[in-house]
From TrEMBL:
Belongs to the VPS35L family. Keywords: Endosome, Protein transport, Transport. This is VPS35 endosomal protein sorting factor-like. Residues 1-29 are annotated as: Disordered. The keyword Protein transport applies. Its main location: other. It is found in: Endosome. It comes from Punica granatum (Pomegranate). Residues 1-24 have a biased composition (Basic and acidic residues). The keyword Transport applies. PANTHER family: ESOPHAGEAL CANCER ASSOCIATED PROTEIN (PTHR13673), VPS35 ENDOSOMAL PROTEIN-SORTING FACTOR-LIKE (PTHR13673:SF0). The lineage of its organism: Eukaryota, Viridiplantae, Streptophyta, Embryophyta, Tracheophyta. GO terms for cellular component: endosome. GO terms for biological process: endocytic recycling; protein transport.
């Protein structure tokens, strides 16, 4: 066998793409020819003309009937309509429904009416039909969810067709049937979906009736135009014929026997009261009273929700009244309404003489709109101070008020409120009460730059912790406070300089301490390098506490990755400037503190090698320091338990050693890596295909590195390649494909070492390369040829051992290409 001579420089030039100077910058924006406007109008099919079209809610597929081009919304209420539409979507997503829905006999009778029922039943899944035909003793049956929705779609389609054909009676009957379905709460989690679909149909009825009455008010029977009703018209502007038609519709609805369908239908037509009276708000009060007669809690709650929605369609409706109607039952609503008056919100003279019930005040603060809480803050504070009974802890009311005030971008009297709250909470000795209240006001203190209160808070926390210690709930509140504090300050040095901050941090423990430490490290590593020695020492202690908490807390392996990554980022950010020895000493301290985590030891090796390279660049007493860094890395690598990481670190450190001219150190590191491979267990590498591929990649990189690593004249020029080749015989975990690829890599290595000029050399001047050391030595060439012949035989054996014919053919083709590139064809 004779190696083929190669000219790497000529080959590189032959395979390089031809280059020539470009006329212009290919990355610049191309020139665009501007076409003058010739006055031709372009029709964009995606742009529609403006209209007041109000379609139905897109909760189901279109059913084919025309959209209703009317709207009963009051001008300026577009936001309310959008909120209602998104809320209906939220309802359907929040309560997922199973495939089968339980319904009562009454609902079953309504759904059975119509021509489409039998067709839908025939299309239902047979297993669902078996269940849907079984009635229980209580008269409950189950039908498919899609079947129920399809019946509602059919009702909606029939309703629109009947109205367009002029059959108002049929349309009303269909709407009544749909409204009756809302009395059946046996459907369970399907009720929100039923509510959305049913009210969609009833809103269609309201829109159509509104348009019909409005048309009668604006046009005579013969089509003569009478007048155009303004947006804010009054009842006196409406003609008698239109009023009679409107009143007739309300009479028809009033004749419905069932209470709940009657309420829903009148709510759908609620805006039409504007044609009859100037104050339709009175109808809301009457409907609210009627809703008190709905016994079922679920049906009653959704009915009141729809009352609040329909009230938004009326002009000049008090938003506070709408909110109270929507969030409370009638009894609680009356209680809250009376609380606004009885507790003196708006009457500051009434605080001292009224009864105080903490639980009622808590719900009052919770349910009132944010703007009302903001405007009545002083009155609410006075009210809380009067309420200190057994029904609810007073600190919870202070806490809730703080969170409600944080919802507003700008709060009136905020400085006065915070002053009073801090003064009150400072008198409490219990740490739990103190932390609960302070946690709610920390954001307000930061937003309004009340730094004096921050000092008082930290002082108060420190005193109470020293006296009684902390438990679980208190740790959670303290964690929340410290995380908010960390997010407010920009510089970590300002946080560490706060009185009692480090003292409080040292007294924390468990998972809360771990989370706060992670936030500290995250903030520290988001900026540039960390150069201050004091800050480095504090962050080192924080990292050490975080590492110790990981050992104490029973967490999974994947949960260890984020804390370890945080500490690794901190180590990477540390810089001692020109004091390299101090930096290396810091890495030694880190190895002693974090020696149990592979990822951290890997970071330490990278940092040590980086220090060595920087010392080589500066060329100031670099040799001794370089040896210290290499020794540190070699000791650290030996303690890494992950095989693939260990191999990569050995190779990286060997490259750094060779860069500094330490040939013997580099050769020893490569031998250590090979020895590590020889002692590896079968299970360590065969855990998955990723580990095996990374091990193969490492062996191929070793072959590439051996080209520039000078051979050992004492042990033989190919001593290291032979040691690598010995792995093929000693390791049973290697697959035939791995063996074949390693053999190809070693054949290429031998062919490259035989060349007169190597393709690349070590950048360190003074390091003799293999072509200078051995080229022209016949013994050297004979040793390379003998070694290559042995490798080729091993390559053939590996190909024959592959059981798959396809893989065996691919391996043979790869081997032939390698041999053809390396040897002369005889």
């Amino acid at each position: 066998m004779e190696f083929r001579a190669r000219d790497y420089k000529a080959e590189s030039e032959a395979h390089a793409l031809p280059r020539k100077r470009a006329d212009g910058d290919p990355l610049s924006a191309p020139a665009v020819d501007i076409v003058e406007d010739k006055g031709e109008e372009f029709f964009d099919p995606l742009r529609e003309p403006n209209s007041n079209v109000v379609g139905s809610l897109d909760t189901e597929d279109d059913i084919g009937h025309p959209s209703v081009v009317v709207s009963t919304e009051v001008p300026g209420q577009e936001n309310a309509k959008r909120e209602w539409t998104s809320f209906k979507r939220f309802l359907m997503q929040r309560f997922p429904v199973s495939k089968m829905v339980s319904i009562s006999a009454m609902s079953d009778g309504i759904l059975r009416s119509g021509k489409g029922y039998e067709k839908l039943s025939m299309s239902t899944d047979p297993d669902e039909l078996d269940d849907s035909q079984k009635f229980s003793e209580e008269g409950i049956r189950s039908i498919a969810r899609q079947e129920y929705i399809s019946r509602l779609k059919e009702f909606k389609e029939k309703f629109a067709d009947a109205w367009q054909s002029g059959d108002r009676v049929t349309s009303l009957k269909l709407a009544i049937k749909v409204a009756k379905l809302l009395t059946d709460t046996s459907v369970g989690q399907f009720y929100p979906t039923l509510f959305v679909l049913a009210t969609d149909i009833m809103e269609m009825l309201g829109d159509m009736v509104w348009e019909r009455v409005k048309q009668k008010a604006e046009y005579a029977e013969d089509g003569t135009f009478l007048c155009s009703l303004p947006a804010s018209f009054r009842a006196d502007d409406v003609g008698l014929d239109a009023k009679e038609t409107c009143n007739n519709w309300f009479c028809k609805i009033g004749s419905v026997k069932e209470l709940l369908p009657r309420i829903y239908l009148e709510l759908a037509l609620l805006p039409c009261w504007r044609f009859l009276v100037d104050q339709p708000i009175d109808s809301i009060q009457r409907l609210v009273m009627m809703a008190r007669g709905v016994a079922d809690p679920l049906a009653c709650s959704y009915c009141r929700l729809y009352i609040a929605r329909c009230a938004q369609k009326l002009p000049s409706v008090d938003t506070g009244m709408i909110h109270l109607v929507s969030i409370a039952s009638s009894g609680l609503r009356k209680l809250l309404e009376s609380a606004v008056v009885e507790f003196g919100l708006g009457n500051t003279e009434a605080h001292g003489s009224n009864p105080s019930i903490s639980i009622i005040v808590h719900n009052l603060i919770k349910e009132l709109p944010v703007d009302m809480v903001n405007s009545k803050t002083i009155d609410i504070i006075n009210l809380i101070e009067c309420c200190n009974d057994y029904t609810l802890d007073q600190c919870l009311n202070y806490r809730l008020l703080g969170f409600r005030l944080s919802e507003s971008k700008y709060s009136l009297h905020i400085v006065t409120v915070v002053d009073r709250v801090i003064r009150v909470v400072s008198q409490k000795d219990m740490l739990d009460e103190y932390l609960k209240v302070v946690d709610a006001y920390v954001d307000l203190i930061f937003q309004n730059h009340m730094d004096d209160h921050l000092v008082k808070i930290l002082d108060g926390i420190s005193k109470r912790i020293c006296n009684k210690g902390m438990v679980g709930d208190e740790l959670a509140c303290l964690q929340s406070i410290l995380v908010k504090l960390l997010s407010h300050f920009k510089n970590l040095e300002d946080i560490f300089s706060l009185n009692h901050f480090l003292e409080i941090l040292d007294m924390m423990y468990g998972r809360s301490r771990m989370i706060v430490n992670m936030h500290i490290l995250d903030k520290a590593t988001r900026g540039g390098l960390i150069c201050d020695p004091t800050t480095i020492q504090l962050l080192f202690e924080v990292s050490q506490a975080l590492n110790d908490s990981i050992d104490q807390v029973n967490v999974r392996d994947e949960d260890l990755q984020q804390p370890a990554r945080m500490i690794s980022r901190f180590i990477d950010k540390v810089s001692y400037g020109a004091d390299r020895e101090r930096h290396l000493a810091f890495l030694v301290e880190c190895r002693r503190a974090f020696g149990s985590t592979n990822e951290l030891k890997e970071t330490l090796v990278h940092s040590s090698n980086s220090l060595a390279v920087k010392a080589l660049i500066e060329r100031k007493n670099h040799l001794d320091f370089l040896k210290s860094c290499i020794a540190f890395s070699e000791v650290t690598i030996s303690s890494v338990t992950a095989l693939v990481r260990q191999l990569k670190l050995y190779l990286e450190t060997a490259e750094v050693a060779l860069l500094g001219g330490l040939v013997s150190h580099s050769d020893g590191l490569v031998q250590s890596a090979i020895s590590c491979m020889q002692s590896v267990d079968l299970v360590d590498v065969s855990r998955g295909p990723t580990d095996a591929d990374e091990t193969l990649n490492f062996l191929q990189k070793i072959c590439g590195f051996l080209i520039i690593l000078p051979g050992n004249p004492e042990k033989g020029a190919v001593y290291t390649p032979k040691s690598l080749f010995a792995l093929l015989n000693s390791q049973s975990w290697m697959t035939p494909r791995m063996r074949a690829r390693i053999c190809c890599a070693m054949i290429s290595l031998s062919a490259t070492l035989s060349q007169k000029n190597l393709p690349y050399h070590a950048s360190k001047s003074g390091i003799p390369s293999n072509d200078i050391l051995f080229y022209g030595n016949s013994a050297y060439f004979g040793e390379l040829v003998s070694f290559s012949e042995e490798v080729v035989r091993k390559l053939v054996d590996a190909i024959k051992q592959e059981p798959s014919p396809v893989a065996r053919g691919s391996m043979a083709l790869e081997a032939c290409n390698c041999i053809a590139l390396s040897f002369k064809v005889s």
